[in-house]
Write a structure and sequence with these properties.
Elements: H1 6-9, E1 13-15, E2 30-31, E3 38-42, H2 45-48, H3 51-60, E4 75-79, E5 93-99, E6 104-109, E7 113-114, E8 117-123, H4 126-156, H5 164-170, E9 172-173, E10 181-185, E11 189-196, E12 199-209, H6 219-234, E13 243-245, E14 252-258, E15 261-272, E16 278-288, E17 293-302, H7 309-319, E18 323-324
Parallel strand pairs: 1-6, 2-7, 3-4, 3-5, 5-8
Antiparallel strand pairs: 6-8, 9-18, 10-11, 11-12, 12-17, 13-15, 14-15, 15-16, 16-17
Helix pairs in contact: 3-4, 4-7
Pfam families: DUF4837
GO molecular function, one term: endonuclease activity
Keywords: Endonuclease, Hydrolase, Nuclease
């Protein structure tokens, strides 16, 4: 969880799936449904078609960072409260916004199905509803994102790729779907990929000395130099070209955590130099002080004319499953 969201989340009222006057029995709840990153928005039609709906779309359908084309954070489906019954309540993510007698934001878990994460926002006016959305959308999105990562990882665990060699060579374990295969493996570099109908999704894993990423102020530049030099040399490209970071697209840099260790998270666009090939990447540089190294984990997609949000989300969920010896 990104540190700057912790204080914001503390402002929300949490209703745990196990805590309501002690314990709450959720065994009777049915299994939740829904595609990854799909959000049910329960709101009156007049609010949805006005400024409140515009604010919801601005925040929850904002473009995903690090993709070559604009794609929304969530695929949203709006329904008025009167229709939010029975099967409609089984969707895994929901946002319920309404006008009422108080100003309140509740973040709830497993309310109608499990697993499920929802945000219930009540306000005394449209203006106050918009204000609450502006103040709390980052915390709500973080909770939704955490929930969807867990769901994506659960689906991955159904059938896993055997990867004992990467643990032996690099001291790294990942939960990777069995649809992937090892494309290249040596003592210090692994390339794992999955074939798509049009293109591939890819994971690369290697390590570098701690000294190669010097400080926060130069981290993104250091990370780009590492991925261009090592990745560019290790990944085979036709016609003596090179797999590099797209220079015209400034990468995004965030602080993250993997296996309890600090990590730099970088999102950007890769390209094959002088060729019409490119796509998004997500890169984690995990600080492993015990072994005096950064473990570099990267997921990238090549999928021309295909939406890439969910491809990259799958790769992110895989990389976040990493454990270090």
């Amino acid at each position: 969880m990104k540190p700057f969201l912790i204080a914001m989340i503390s402002l929300l009222t949490f209703i745990s799936c196990n805590e309501t006057n002690g314990k709450r029995d959720t065994s009777y709840l049915s299994k939740s449904v829904g595609n990854i990153n799909s959000l049910q928005v329960i709101i009156a039609n007049d609010l949805w078609n006005g400024t409140v709906g515009e604010e919801i779309r601005n925040e929850f359908a904002a473009p995903v960072d690090g993709l070559p084309q604009e794609e929304p954070l969530y695929s949203m489906n709006q329904m008025p409260p009167a229709t939010y019954t029975d099967f409609a309540r089984k969707y895994r993510l929901f946002l319920h916004a309404t006008i009422g007698t108080e100003n309140k934001v509740n973040l709830v878990h497993d309310l109608y199905a499990k697993p499920q994460t929802g945000a219930i926002i009540t306000a005394t006016s449209e203006e106050k509803l918009i204000e609450l959305l502006k103040e709390n959308h980052e915390a709500i999105i973080d909770a939704f994102h955490t929930s969807e990562i867990k769901e994506r990882q659960k689906r991955t665990r159904v059938s896993l790729l055997e990867l004992d060699s990467i643990e032996n060579q690099l001291g790294v374990t990942l939960k990777i779907p069995s649809a992937y295969r090892i494309a290249k493996a040596n003592d210090d570099f692994y390339w794992i990929r999955k074939d798509l109908k049009s293109g591939t999704t890819n994971i690369i894993v290697y390590d570098v000395p701690l000294s190669m990423i010097s400080s926060d102020s130069t981290a993104v530049g250091d990370i780009i130099k590492i991925r261009d030099s090592i990745g560019g040399k290790q990944l085979p490209v036709e016609d003596d070209s090179q797999f590099i970071t797209e220079e015209a697209y400034a990468p995004y840099l965030f602080n993250a955590e993997i296996d309890g260790k600090f990590a730099y998270e970088t999102k950007g666009i890769w390209e094959v130099k002088d060729e019409f090939m490119s796509g998004p990447f997500i890169n984690y540089a995990v600080r492993d002080e015990k072994n005096n190294r950064y473990v570099i984990l990267e997921g990238f997609s090549y999928a021309p004319s295909v939406s890439k949000r969910d491809l990259q989300f799958e790769l992110e969920s895989i990389l976040l499953s990493t454990k270090l010896k």
